[in-house]
Each structure stands twice: as structure tokens, then as C-alpha cells.
Design a protein that fits this description.
- Strands 3-2-1-4-5-6-7 form a seven-stranded mixed beta sheet, with helices on both faces.
- The chain is built from six helices and seven strands; from the N terminus they run βαβαβαβαβαββα.
- α1 crosses α6.
- It has helices spanning 12-23, 42-48, 64-77, 94-99, 120-126, 162-193; strands spanning 2-7, 29-35, 53-55, 82-85, 104-108, 131-138, 148-155.
- By secondary structure, the chain is α/β, with parallel strands linked by helices.
- The protein is globular.
- Bound molecules: 5-O-phosphono-beta-D-ribofuranosylamine.
Length: 194
Amino acid sequence: MKLALFASGNGSNVQAIVEAVKIGTLQAEIVGLVCDNPTAFVIERAQNAGIETFVLSPEQCANKQVWEEQVVTFLQEKGTELVVLAGFMRIVGPTLLEAFPQRITNIHPSLLPNFPGKSGIQDAFDAKVSKTGVTIHWVDAGVDTGPIICQETLNIDPNWTLEQLETRIHAIEHRLYPETLQQIIETFNKGVDS
Ligand code: GRF
């Protein structure tokens, strides 16, 4: 299956997916990285891995729809079958959603529907909850609202600092996203075979 990855910043989840493809635990082809932030470190990670990058911020376009149209053109040229948001910090609009219906996944660092939005780890930490976790879900027009594919819970030790919580959440993400993508691909393949 041909995957396109989307990211906006550091790209540690992109790196984890790239490595899973390299060692064969994720049986997919990464056809490109879409990045909306020209200064993001993830661009360097993708280039080092030999992945083609499409780097353009919506602010460089007349409006977000124009940006999405350009992104969709790139994705279609590359034969993209699944769009994988991995640290992509924008809301997906109708142009992209309609081009890839039920074909866009996202990872979020909380147990949705709790703590949606940009700072899921910090918000759970500040709320002093005893459990948080990671959610992988299908993307719809809302903010972190689409159907949940899987979740993993993390019990929070009240002595942890925010940094310690972040480290543990990211460790779960880096294992769970490649595993879940492999399961999604296997499910799609079964549907095609039967
Ligand atoms: C991750 O925690 C992801 O769940 C969230 O943004 C963060 C991105 O981290 N959506 P990275 O860029 O993959 O290192």
C-alpha cells in the first residue's frame, strides 16, 4: 500500500514509520512527505531517508483550498492510497477529505475524546488525571473527532514531570502507529482478496 505522510514539526513519528518500513514490520511504500512548515526538522529526516518531500505552507497560497488542491495533485501523482497524519498540526479541509474518503489516519497523544487539540499531553498533565494515552483514529471534518481505530492507556505516576510524561507518550506512539498501520493494511488487503 502506498502511504503519504503528513507532518509539521519534529517528525519523530514519521521516523518511526520510516524505520518500520525499512525493517519490514510495516509492509508499505512511503511515496512522499507533505509538510506545511518549511522550517520543520521532519523535512531533513525525510530527505535523509530518500523520501520525496512536498513542502508548502497554506500561507504561501491564496487560501487553504488552493493549498489542499495542490496537495491532492501531489498525492494523486504519487498514487497515494492512504494518507497518514503524523504530527500534522492543521485541520483537514473538505478538498482533502473528499479526495481520500475514509483514507486519512491521525495519531493524537491523549485518550480521545479527552484532551483534543494541539496540546493533549500538557492538558492531561495539567488536569492531573490518573490515566492518559494515545489514540489513532480516522480523520473527519472535526478536530480529533473521527472514528477511533485504537487506543492505548498509560497510567500516570503523580511524581512524573511533564517531560517524563511526554517521553512515555512518544514511546507508545512510535510503537503503536506502525503496528496499527500494518493492521489497517492487512484489513484492506483482506477486503480486496475476498
Ligand atoms: C505527536 O505527539 C502526535 O501525536 C501529535 O503531535 C506530536 C508530533 O510529534 N499529533 P513528532 O513531530 O512526530 O515528533
